[in-house]
Design brief:
By secondary structure, the chain is mostly helical. Helices cover about 80% and strands about 0% of the residues.
């Protein structure tokens, strides 16, 4: 379960970084525009944190944990890493 939460946290951090990079304006902003932009980013992150907290707190079956683990393995770039994570997922399902 700790590895699943760690995988979610890593995925969330990566997605947040991608979203922030895509949301960066190209022209210089005034102070007011910068503050508005930061307020919008903060609201998006608060909503994402609330969604993730809800996911962590809900009861899960073994099948749910296995599916989440396989989704984490799917995103891996290394075949060895994906195979290792897949093996760990199989162990989760067998518990």
């Amino acid at each position: 379960m700790k590895t699943t939460i760690a995988a979610f946290a890593a995925g969330t951090a990566l997605l947040s970084a991608i979203a922030m990079a895509a949301d960066q304006p190209t022209a210089p902003l005034s102070d007011r525009e910068r503050v508005d932009h930061l307020i919008r980013q903060n609201q998006v992150l608060i909503e994402e944190n609330a969604r993730l907290k809800g996911l962590c707190e809900r009861p899960r079956t073994k099948e749910d944990a296995f599916a989440e683990c396989m989704q984490a393995a799917k995103g891996g770039t290394s075949a060895m890493a994906a195979e290792s994570i897949g093996g760990h997922c199989d162990q989760i399902l067998k518990r």
